[in-house]
Amino acid sequence: MTILKRYILGQFIKTYALTVGGLVGMFIVIDGFERLDEFVNKNADVGDFLVYYFFKIPFILSYMAPQSVLVATVITLATLSRNNEFTAMKACGISVTGLTLPIIGFSAFLALGLMVCNEFVTPVTSQKMNYLFNIKVRGAVDQSKQMRDHLWIRSGNGSIWNINYYDPMKSFMKGVSLYTFDPVRPDIRHRIDAKSALWNGQQWEFFNGYIRFLSADGVESTRYFEREIFPTLEKPADFKKLQKRPEEMSARYMYATIQKQEKEGLDSTRTWVDLHQKLSYPFISVVLALIGIPLSIRSSRTGGLLFCVWVSLVTGFIFSFFYAMGISFGYKGVFSPVMAAWGPCLLFICIGFYLLLTMDSEKLLPT
Fold first, then answer.
1. Tens digits of residue pLDDT in 72-112
2. CATH no., domain 157-232
3. Helix (H) or strand (E) holding 210
4. Comparing C-alpha atoms, which of 183, 177, 182 is closest to residue 206?
5. Which of 114, 168, 224, 245 could bond to 210 as cystine, CB 3.0-4.6 Å?
6. Cα separation of 329 and 343, whole Å?
7. Of 240, 242, 272, whose CA–CA distance to 255 is shortest?
8. How many helices (H) and strands (E) does the chain have?
9. How many C-beta atoms lie closer than 10 Å to residue 91's C-beta?
10. What share of residues in the chain are helix, strand, coil (percent, to 5)?
């Protein structure tokens, strides 16, 4: 029994390696032809083109890995079934379900590996990839280093910044107003106005301004200053942060963003959906393995290898449709973020278990 499981696992890993390598290669070739014109028109170096796709490989791999599990499962099991190896195993009293557990186990291990990759590798390489293409090749302005006008920023403690001009390279502000609110009532407690502010390496120094102490009745007092340091939470990096793309964010970063959005009273629904999508996507490998195992064995009874692959592609398309529809409904608030990302996975897991439990049926889709 153990030898047979190792044999099936070995066949599956070989097929999976070829499948994921082929899909990643096809993606790079197709995408490369689409991007090549832009690299040539911008007179980019060949090295930039190669480095761009070197950084893009983790993203492509994490995207293609679950689909590769389905194709590899179908090819492996359909080949074994075509060679009557499953028939021989069943004749020896060995259940097909037990023999396919290594495939499910490998899929679960792969899902955990993808989670680690998406947490520590893909965000870093995606940032470098997008920076190289958008800034270096396209020549777009690096917004994190661009001077900005008329900024409104809400602090984590509820304070509000109004900045007429900010230079992120020098960590320098002009025309600064800082509003702090009463912790009990939504009333402004202090208003700080300064001609300029400069980051000294540890704190913001405000120059040539005044602070007003306010109450429900109006201004209680005003104090002028030439140079003053007020306690604030924000650092220079907080004023030049840009909205990152989902592939550039780790799950920890997303969760921290959600906490900040909710603390500031902002709508965090979309970020919650993105977080659950990032967590659920690797486990699509397990879902597609559960679906692919019974379908590949059933379809091999009525057709050849190409028919099995066709069935798997249709199944993958149907799942992708439900998954994308769930994410879309999550963005619109129709589904909760958990239901949007995990609901389609749970539905197809139930379908997969049903097909596994009715494996002995001669029909492709038993009723």
1. 998 888 888 777 666 676 666 667 677 788 899 999 999 99
2. 2.60.450.10
3. strand 204-215
4. 177
5. 224
6. 11
7. 272
8. 11, 6
9. 9
10. 65, 15, 20
Residue 231 token pair? 């306690």
Q: What is the pLDDT of residues 298-316, one digit of tens each?
A: 776 666 677 777 887 888 8
List, for residues 347-366, the tens digit of each pLDDT value: 999 998 888 877 765 555 55
CATH 2.60.450.10 positions along the chain are 157-232
Place of tokens 């120094």: 205
Residue 208 CA, chain-centre distance (Å), reads: 45
- Report the 10 Å Cβ neighbour count for 80: 24
DSSP-based three-state secondary structure for 62: helix
- Among residues 257, 304, 315, the alpha carbon closest in space to that of 123 is found at 257
The full length of the chain comes to 367
* Span 50-69, average pLDDT: 94
357-to-86, 95, 98, 290, 364 alpha-carbon distances in Å: 17, 11, 12, 11, 13
CA dihedral 161, 165, 166, 169 (to 10 degrees): -170
Q: 28: part of which helix (H) or strand (E)?
A: helix 2-41
Amino acid residing at 133 = F
Residues contacting 202, CB < 8 A, separation 6+:
none
Residue 186, Cβ density class (10 Å: 0-12 exposed, 13-18 middle, ≥19 buried): exposed
Select from 107, 101, 34 the least CA-distant residue to 67. Answer: 107
Q: CA angle, corner 84, sides to 108 and 300, nearest 5? A: 65
> Residue 37 is inside which H or E element, if any?
helix 2-41
- Contacts of 294 by beta carbon, 8 Å cutoff, 6+ apart: 352, 355, 356, 358, 359
Interval 108-130 mean pLDDT: 94
For residue 122, give every residue at least 6 positions away whose Cβ sits within 8 Å of its Cβ, in sequence order, or none.
58, 59, 62, 247
How confident is the model over 142-166, as a mean pLDDT?
A: 73
